[in-house]
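Let us practice reading a record.
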Amino acid sequence: MLNDTTTPTRLLATRRSGRPRDMIAPGPDAAQLDAILAIAARTPDHGKLAPWRFVVVPGDRRDDLARVITSAYLAERPQAARLEIDALDQFARQAPALVVILSSPRPDSHIPMWEQELSAGAVCMNLLHAAHAMGFVGGWLTGWAAYSDAVRDAFGASPERVAGFMFIGSPSKTIEERQRPESSNIVSIWGSQKG
């Protein structure tokens, strides 16, 4: 049994999400990114469906992704302000590495869709843990682009959905701890009365 003094426990306890806009080089090289994705794929997956997949967006394709995102946004909101467009344009260019994780459910399977979607969330979390274990910082973003069918169509097709834009790099500054929920507010014992 692990305790608070073991290295794996400390590693899990020190993982923090980084802001992709604050990430700098170095990011993972090709071999490191392959290892991160292999570790991410070691996730709970009822039925062994792999109801998710990874799309790596190389650095030399970030401008293309920025065009996809801004074009999709303008098609939906032609009166968008310049600041909105600039923010979306920069979204695609953040951090040294970007992996888009798609929830790729199998509607033909007897495995409930909810379990398949939970597996997609778990693969995202595993990716963040793997990046942290390799000395990088990761950030899981969604935002407007994750819910746009036009953006999703650049990577896949319905019933797929963007589970997250996973940015990986090195922190440019110390990542501060954020407030976490108190255990007493989120943990209960079944059958006991809570105050």
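A brief commentary: The helical segments are 7-13, 30-40, 62-76, 82-91, 113-133, 144-147, 149-153, 183-186.
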